[in-house]
Amino acid sequence: MSKDNQILEELTSKEYEHGWSVNYEADEAPVGLTEETIRWISAKKEEPQWLLDWRLKAFKTWQAMSEPKWANVHYPKIDLQSLKYYSAPKLANKPKNLDEVDPELLDIYKRLGINLNEQKRLQGIAVDAVLDSVSVATTFKGTLSKLGIVFCSFSEAVKEHPELVKKYLGSVVPMTDNYYAALNAAVFSDGSFCYIPKGVRCPMELSTYFRINAANTGQFERTLIVAEDESYVSYLEGCTAPQRDENQLHAAVVEIYAGAHAEVKYSTVQNWFPGSKEGVGGIYNFVTKRGICAGDFSKISWTQVETGSAVTWKYPSCILKGDNSIGEFYSVAVTNNYQQADTGTKMIHIGKNTKSRIVSKGISAGKSQNSYRGQVQVMKRATNARNFSQCDSLLMGDRCGAHTFPYIDINNPTAKVEHEATTSKIGEDQLFYCNQRGIATEDAVALIVNGYAKEVLNQLPMEFAVEAQKLLALTLEGSVG
Amino acid sequence: MLSIKNLHASIEGTPILRGINLEVKAGEVHAIMGPNGSGKSTLASVLAGREEYEVTEGEVIFKGIDLLELSPEVRAREGVFLAFQYPVEIPGVSSTNFLRTAVNQVREYRGLDPLDAVKFLTLMKEKMKLVEIDQKLLSRSLNEGFSGGEKKRNEIFQMAMLDPTLSILDETDSGLDIDALRIVSNGVNQLKSDKNATIVVTHYQRLLDYIVPDFVHVLYNGRIVKSGTKELAMELEEKGYDWIKEEVDSKATV
Ligand SMILES: Nc1ncnc2c1ncn2[C@@H]1O[C@H](COP(=O)(O)OP(=O)(O)OP(=O)(O)O)[C@@H](O)[C@H]1O
Ligand SMILES: [Mg+2]
C-alpha cells in the first residue's frame, strides 16, 4: 500500500531522469558499415568461423533489402554509414566475477537503481547488465548453474555453449525476416542468453538491463531464451539511454523457444530516451521479438510497457506450433509530445486447440501518434483455434492520434476470433471528480491512466509493476491542464 | 463560514445563477430545494470549482478566504466536499486506492503525515461502519457498475474519510432505498459538529425528517427566492412550486 504513496511522491520530478551519460574509455569500431566492420566485430569477440559466416550471410541478405515503409511512423532517413557499430567499455581483462568489474561501470548501474552486487540485492532477481554493446556483469550465475540453468551474455554463450547457440540462433527470427532483423544478425554485438533445462522451474526472475551510453553508436543486442520441455522462466528487460540531440538507433532481436509444457513470460519496460518536448533526439527503436511455442501445451506470454523512444516499431509475436499451446500479448504503449509508436503483435495459430489473447492499451498525449497493429492468423491445420483481442485507445487532448490496424486471416472454419476495440478520452468529469477529493490533476491523470492500464500492469512482476506505474505517470506529465 | 454574495455564473454564455446570496455558519444545516433546472447543481459545481462555469459577478468567502481564487483541489483540501448528484466512474481504480491518494494529499496540505497502510485501513474500517458500506464494494473499480444507491452511499463514505468543513450533498437521497436513506442520513448526522456545516440539495421533504435543516431555501431561475425553516419544506411538499413561481413572476412584472 505505501508503495503507491511512494509512487505519487516521485511523480513530482519532471524530465527524463536517465538522461545523463558517463565518460569512460571505450573500444570502438570505426564509423560505417561494410563487410570489414563485421569482420572487425567478429574478430574483436574472438568468434568461431561459423558465426562470422552467419553474420556475413546476414549482411549480404540485408544489402538486398530495403527499409520497411508500411508502419505508421515518419522520420528522416537514417544514415547507417554514419554510425558506429561497436562500442565497449575498455576492460583490461574480461572480469571473471563481480569483484573484478570496473567500479565505474558498477556505478553507472547503481545510478540507474540496479545493484549488481549479489550480496546487497534483496529481491532474488538475476541481472545481466548490457552497456552499449557488451554485457558487463551477470549476477547469481552460481545459484542458477546448480540447477543447470545457463544465464550469461551472448558472447559468453557462443564460447561456452556453442552447440546450443548454433542450434537455436536464427531459428525463430531468421536473418531474412526483415530489414532490421537482418541488420542485427550482421552486426549484433552482445545480449543475453538463457537456457532452462528440461523440468526446471527457474527460481528467480531473470533480468537484462540495457543501457546505451556512447554517442553515435547503434545498439544491436540479441537475446535468446530456450526453455526445454516442462520448464518455466520469467524474464524481464529494462532499458535507458542518455539524453542526446541526435537520434540513436536501437535494433534488437529477441528469440524465444518453448518446448512441450514449458512456459516463458517475457516482460519489458521500455524507457529509452523519447526525445525532447520539441521532438529533438530520442531513440529509434526497431525491434523484432518472436517466440515459438514449439511443443504441445507450451505457453509464451509477452508483456510490454512502452513509454520511451522517439519512434517505436515493435511486434512481439507468437508462433503457436504445438497443439494446445497458448500465446499472450499484453501491452501498454504511451506516447507524448512528438513520440510515434507502431506496435502490436502477431499470433500465428498452427497447432490444434491453440489459444491466443491480445490486450493492448494505447495512451496518446501531446502531438504523438500511437498505432496498434496486430495480426491473427489461423492456419488450415489449426482446428479449434481461439483468439480474443482487446484494443483500447485513450486520448489526452485533441492533437494526438490513435490508430488500430487489426489483420485477421482465417483458414480453418472452426476458429473463433473475437476483436473488441474502444477509444476514449480522459474525461473532464473524471478529473474534476478527483480534484474535488483533493487530488491534484497530475496525480489524477496518473491514477486514471494506471487504472486504465491495470489489466496489463497486473501481468508484470511486482517490482516491475511499481516501476511501470511510475513511468506511465512521468511520461504523461504536463499532458493535461 | 461561507458567505455567498450576489453570485452570478454562466455556462457557455448562458447565465444560470443570477445573484445568489447565502450565509452559512458553522454548525448549521441548510437545505436547498427548487424545481428541476433551477440551478442547484450549478451552485454546487461553482462552489466546488468546476471550470466549465464562468463566474461573472459576486463573491464567495469561505473561512475568510476568497474561494473563487482557489483551484478545485485546493478548495477540497481546505474542506469543501461535494457529494455528486451523478458520481463518476473510474475504471481500474479501486475506491480504496483512490481514497488513499485523496486522504494523503489532503493530509499533506494540512501539514499532517501521510497515513500508512495500517492506519489507513483502520480509519477506513471505522468510517465504513458509519454508512454500513461493504468492504467488497471498496475493492471494486470506483463507481463502476455500482447501483445508484451504492454510488450515493459511497459518496457519503468518502465524505466521512475526508472530514470536510463544508459538505454539499447534491440529491444524495435520490436512488437510496428506505433503509439506506435512514442509514446514510444517520451517517451524515454523526459527522455533524459545531465546526462544520452541511448544505443538502433535495427534492423531498422526507430526507429533512432525518437530516433536520436549520434553514430551507428555494432556488428558482438562478436565485434564492424564498427562505424559511423546515416548515417551508413541508409546505412545498404539499403545494408544489407553482405558488412560489407565481409570487416571483408577479413581482417581476410589477
Ligand atoms: N452546458 C450547458 N449549456 C447550457 N445550459 C446548461 C448547460 N449545463 C447545464 N445547463 C442548464 O443549467 C440549468 C441548471 O442546471 P442544474 O443542473 O444546476 O439544475 P438543478 O437545479 O440541479 O436541476 P435538477 O433538480 O434536475 O438536478 C438547466 O436548465 C440546465 O439545462
Ligand atoms: Mg441537480
UniProtKB/TrEMBL annotation, chain A:
> Which GO biological-process labels does this protein carry?
iron-sulfur cluster assembly
Q: Name the domain of life.
A: Bacteria
Report the InterPro entries cross-referenced here: Fe-S_cluster_assembly_SufBD, SUF_FeS_clus_asmbl_SufB, SUF_FeS_clus_asmbl_SufBD_core, SUF_FeS_clus_asmbl_SufBD_sf, SufBD_N
Indicate the segments forming the SUF system FeS cluster assembly SufBD N-terminal domain, all copies.
Answer: 147-202
Domain spans labelled SUF system FeS cluster assembly SufBD core:
210-451
Which PANTHER family does this chain map to?
FES CLUSTER ASSEMBLY PROTEIN SUF, UPF0051 PROTEIN ABCI8, CHLOROPLASTIC-RELATED
Indicate the family of this protein.
Belongs to the iron-sulfur cluster assembly SufBD family.
What protein does this entry describe? Iron-regulated ABC transporter membrane component SufB
The species this protein was found in: Algoriphagus aquimarinus
From TrEMBL, chain B:
Q: Which GO terms describe its molecular function?
A: ATP binding; ATP hydrolysis activity
Quote the protein name from its UniProt record.
Iron-regulated ABC transporter ATPase subunit SufC
The Swiss-Prot or TrEMBL record describes its family as follows: Belongs to the ABC transporter superfamily. Ycf16 family.
The record, for Pfam families, names:
ABC_tran
- Keyword tags: ATP-binding, Nucleotide-binding
Task: State the species of origin.
Answer: Algoriphagus aquimarinus
A single GO cellular-component term from the record reads:
cytoplasm
Whether Nucleotide-binding counts among this entry's keywords is: yes
> Per the database record, which ranges form the ABC transporter domain?
2-246
Q: Which domain of life does this protein belong to?
A: Bacteria
Stored SMART domains: AAA (SM00382)
Entries under PANTHER family matching the protein: ABC TRANSPORTER I FAMILY MEMBER 6, CHLOROPLASTIC
NCBIfam families per the UniProt record, alphabetical: sufC
Gene3D superfamilies found in the cross-reference section: P-loop containing nucleotide triphosphate hydrolases
Q: Which InterPro entries match?
A: AAA+_ATPase (IPR003593), ABC_transporter-like_ATP-bd (IPR003439), FeS-cluster_ATPase_SufC (IPR010230), P-loop_NTPase (IPR027417)
Show the CDD domains listed in the entry: ABC_FeS_Assembly
